[in-house]
Design brief:
The protein has 480 residues and is α+β, with helices and mostly antiparallel strands. 37% of the residues lie in helices and 14% in strands. β2 (76-80), α4 (107-114) and β3 (118-123) form a beta-alpha-beta unit.
């Protein structure tokens, strides 16, 4: 038995059946991290191994006394380096926060610890989580699990690579503009952007307006994804827009369901979204697997101006990003990445009336999406517009389509495909769709009904069973 090859659910069952000790699990993962992490730089701020082994021993002692904290009992976890863990640096990838050590856990951290998880460090992220490419001046670049020469995606790039390279059994991610879906796609794992409010964030300076980014689960299997969502989700009075409604113990009882579902394939939005060669083909291979499961797949037009949605998105993003990084800009513009400064400066002259109009426009877009969701159970888009690119680049300046190069006018326009679920606040599940001729992974987004996580998870379970050949594909670098 190779402990790090087991799913998180298999690990949990073995630990609770006393077939494996928490100490054995921690030893196996620490050995794996020591062997593999230097090649990929997925985990940062790693904690003292002796302390971690002592914590694992304590979890074993609890089990001997008949007590378990929960599903994650004794398992190693690493929070994204945007999430506070008491006593562990939260740098957000910024030199200005290199020495920032929180004294309290974030709500997400508390929930994962309460379920038995042992924090072994953090997962790397780009500065402030901005950009779908994980690099920063504090820890450097995270490398793709399937080819260290190319990008891991982002901003949850460290989490995705840690999963794919068996450095963690499960991982948290966060998603503003595809920051969870993109790296999941590029590292051949599953990632769920939940409905806004499903996984509440606290502490938070604002709990009313900042409703585009959300934490969510990432995993190598759909059952693990469901169990981790069960740990992360649930209302909290300090987050007044947080959601309830998921039935207790849903992860255990969830069943695969695909037959008869109506799937609307949005493709490249009738040519609006530039795509590299092979991206749409890979997604259509994934759609063929859904058809084989009994889904009814048909092309559908968005029926809403994509450029109007983009402009609405820009207004929301610049305001929310600028408000978040303003204290850091005040400390020194020269220590803030140019892309973050661009967001900050774009927001500087924006009037309150303009932002309110953007909120009205967002409402109109949501209502339009509801009309589409009345016709389809699930909408599908690619999770990315390009294949993983050279890790030495900051971001793709252009997308090379079969019809020629299309220049990108912002640092994030090459990921425009992910904004539609975010802007509408709809749950979206990245699922793998295979590989390029060069062995690089791709994924597609399954966008569900409002607060429709359970239906998405059920579809994901069915899909997972149909794509075992893709899920078991390993890179040639031999580090799996």
């Amino acid at each position: 038995m190779v402990i790090t090859e087991l799913s998180a659910n298999e690990l949990s069952q073995a630990i609770h059946a006393k077939q494996l000790s928490c100490l054995e699990v921690m030893q196996a993962y620490l050995q794996r991290v020591d062997q593999v992490n230097p090649h990929f730089n997925a985990l940062v701020s790693l904690q003292d191994p002796l302390t971690l082994l002592a914590q694992a021993n304590a979890c074993d002692e609890e089990l001997r006394q008949g007590h378990s904290r929960g599903w994650l009992q004794g398992m190693p976890i690493a929070l994204k380096d945007l999430v506070d863990v008491a006593g562990v640096p939260t740098t957000c990838g910024s030199p200005l926060l290199r020495d920032n050590i929180p004294t309290q856990d974030a709500l997400l951290t508390r929930r994962m610890k309460a379920a038995g998880g042992i924090v072994i460090g953090k997962t790397n992220t780009p500065e402030w989580g901005l950009g779908s490419h994980t690099f920063n001046e504090v820890f450097g670049t995270t490398r793709n699990a399937y080819n260290p020469a190319v990008s891991a995606g982002g901003s949850s790039g460290g989490a995705a690579v840690a999963l794919a390279q068996r450095l963690l059994p499960v991982a948290d991610g966060s998603d503003f503009m595809g920051s969870l879906r993109n790296p999941a796609a590029w590292n051949n794992v599953f990632g769920l952007r939940p409905s806004q409010g499903r996984v509440p964030a606290y502490p938070a300076g604002d709990v009313w307006v900042s409703q585009l980014g959300t934490d969510g689960p990432m995993a190598r299997t759909m059952r693990d994804l469901a169990y981790l969502l069960q740990v992360m989700a649930g209302p909290d009075a300090r987050a007044p827009l947080s959601l309830s409604g998921l039935p207790q113990g849903f992860a255990k009882t969830l069943q695969p369901q695909a037959k008869g579902l109506r799937i609307g394939w949005l493709g490249n939005l009738d040519g609006y979204l530039p795509m590299e060669a092979g991206v749409l083909d890979a997604c259509e291979n994934g759609l063929k697997r859904l058809q084989d499961l009994g889904c009814h797949v048909e092309p559908v037009a968005l029926g809403y101006s994509p450029e109007a949605a983009w402009q609405t998105w820009l207004a929301w993003r610049r305001v929310l990003t600028a408000s978040r990084i303003a204290p850091m800009v005040a400390k020194g513009r020269d220590l803030v990445k140019p892309e973050a400064l661009w967001e900050f400066d774009q927001a500087a002259g924006m009037k309150a009336s303009e932002f309110l109009q953007a909120s009205t426009d967002r409402t109109a877009f949501y209502q339009h999406m509801l009309g589409l969701m009345a016709r389809f159970d699930v909408l599908v888009l690619p999770s990315c517009q390009v294949w993983p690119f050279d890790a030495s680049l900051r971001w793709p300046q252009q997308i090379q389509t079969p019809n020629g190069a299309v220049q990108m006018d912002t640092y994030h326009r090459w990921m425009e495909v992910v904004l539609y679920a975010s802007l509408a606040g709809l749950p979206a599940l990245n699922v793998p769709v295979g590989f390029s001729a060069q062995g690089l992974p791709m994924g597609m987004q399954l966008i569900g009904q409002p607060q429709g996580e359970l239906a998405l998870l059920s579809l994901g379970l069915a899909y997972e069973a149909a794509v075992g050949d893709w899920l078991t594909f390993k890179p040639e670098n031999g580090l799996f």
